[in-house]
Amino acid sequence: MAGLGIAEAPTFLLADAIESGALEPLLLDYPTPDYGIYVVRPPGANVPGKVRVLIDTLVERFGGEPHWDRCLMKVNARSRSP
Q1: What is the rounded CA–CA span in Å between residue 8 and residue 14?
Q2: Which of 24-45 are b and which e, b meaning 16 or more Cβ less than 10 Å from the residue's Cβ?
Q3: How far apart are CA 11 and CA 69, in angstroms?
Q4: Domain ranges, ordered by start, for the chain
Q5: Which InterPro entries does UniProt cross-reference here (predicted)?
Q6: What are the backbone angles phi and psi of residue 16, rounded to the nearest 5°?
Q7: Which terminus, N or C, of the chain has the lesser number of Cβ atoms within 10 Å?
Q8: pTM above 0.70, yes or no
Q9: Rg of the chain (C-alpha set)
Q10: How far from chain centre, in Å, is Cα 40?
């Protein structure tokens, strides 16, 4: 892949290549917009049990910092060290 160009792609597709050094992230100071996952349900205090389980599962699985973005944090830390 070396020298073939520049591309923008989701981190989860490229994390292994970044970790191995096959790809090098560029423009880390210019992050792309975050995209979210949303659960839309009717308003009200009563949330059906299955919906609550779905929401809790999504939060557990996708909440917080995605594991595939850790490679960018490592690269960013290396590039900033003297």
Answers
A1: 10
A2: eeeeeeeeeeeeeeeeeeeeee
A3: 6
A4: 11-80
A5: LysR_subst-bd
A6: -65, -40
A7: C
A8: no
A9: 18
A10: 21
